[in-house]
Amino acid sequence: MKLGCIGDDFTGSSDLANTLAKQGMRVVQYSGIPSRDADAGVEAGVVSLKSRSIDPVEAVAQSLRALKWLRAQGCSQFFFKYCSTFDSTPAGNIGPVADALAEALGADRVIVCPAFPGTGRSVFQGCLFVNDRLLNESGMENHPLTPMTDADLRRWLAMQSTFPVGHVPAQVVFDGAGAIKGALDAEHAAGKRHIVVDAIRDEDLMEIGAAAQDLKLITGGSGVALGLPRNFGCSPCTPDWQGQTGPLLVLSGSCSKATRAQVARHVTSHPAREILAEDVIEARITPAGMLEWALGAGSLPLLYSSSDPDVVRAVQDRFGREEAANAIENFFADLAQCAVAAGVTRIIVAGGETSGSVVEALQIEDLTIGPEIDPGVPALRAAPNLVFALKSGNFGTEDFFSKAAGVLGP
């Protein structure tokens, strides 16, 4: 293994694996920290954790255990993957995990770059944009777990990290890899360890990747990984894929603007049922009952809990934030177990936390990477008769669910 990656959620990890696979690396995505060594042919290993919203101390502990396993596989470079909207709170978890990994590796120049132009995420003047809006005006300010209220990555990261935060501006990035490397060295000389790097185009990401060839640790969204495979002698290719037949189920636990639009589009032409947290908590519905409805409902049945932020806040105020979130995640996890036991072979999941709960509940050890459905979202095979699409809440076009169904199989 050459490149060792640690993802703080499952959809982000599949996003990263997709990017690396498209650029020619042989990639496997692991569900949690593996209990055995990787197969000899794996060039990039992506360890998927569910650490984005947990206590920072536990997030650090899990990430260091993942790092230990990846180092044992022989990796020469490491990547810490977080969301392209930098989902975190002033206490973490991006800063604490990046600090711990940097210390463990002795990394003194750590790139921080969540840019992903293909999905409208860009970093300019140290600030993160979603399309033409600053991050804190994009809807992310209403996120139920990690509300992003400041677009300046330097300020946000400085609240989380014990290390000074530097910056490489776009004007330097445009001059290419040599200029970027020189700027990273200058920021290091000025006492900066974590260094935010601007990027607004894929070309910028390729140059950043070239500049990072000798770095021990890179952090960011999947976009900045675009230029890394080339450093290992890889070239772009299309992953092998064969579709899967059999029943399909769509689950959505994300409350992002993009997912709510996808749900609204889907319900106009396909069967759908909303899963309310109060109904789950008060045991008015069961996973088995909802699965029975879905299997008899017709084409592409959708079960969703994707609500408007005001509705989510009202539920959180009534039951508590953690109880409401855990109720939905556990419900979808149990539902997925029932579905696979009943013969469902294709599952589409929207939302990082929901995806993590589903994959963990099914005890899936690793996932092979198939073709890209939408930017950042690949098809995934978990077993000879089970395939997935795990979608970050903010990703995908409005017809994503139908499009994913077509890629996963007839």
What does this protein look like?
The strands form 2 sheets. The chain has a 15-stranded mixed beta sheet, sandwiched between helices. It has a 3-stranded antiparallel beta sheet with strand order 6-7-8, with no helix packed on it. With 410 residues, it is α/β, with parallel strands linked by helices. The mean pLDDT is 95. Helix 11 (287-295) packs across helix 13. It has helices at residues 10-22, 56-72, 94-105, 153-160, 170-173, 177-189, 202-211, 228-231, 257-266, 277-281, 287-295, 309-319, 321-341, 352-361, 400-408; strands at residues 3-7, 27-31, 44-48, 77-81, 110-113, 121-124, 127-130, 133-134, 165-168, 194-197, 217-220, 248-252, 272-274, 302-304, 346-350, 366-374, 377-383, 386-391. The longest helix is centred in the last third of the chain and has 21 residues, at 321-341. 54% of the residues are buried.
Low-confidence parts: none
First CA to last CA: what distance?
A: 34 Å
Please count the helical segments.
15
Count of DSSP E strands?
18
Average pLDDT confidence is 95
- Radius of gyration, Cα only, in angstroms? 20 Å
Strand content: 15-25%
Shape descriptor reads globular
Strand order of the largest sheet: 9-10-5-11-4-1-3-2-16-17-18-15-12-14-13
Give a quick account of the main beta sheet: strands, pairing sense, barrel closure: 15 strands, mixed
Instruction: State the helical fraction.
Output: 25-40%
SS class = alpha/beta
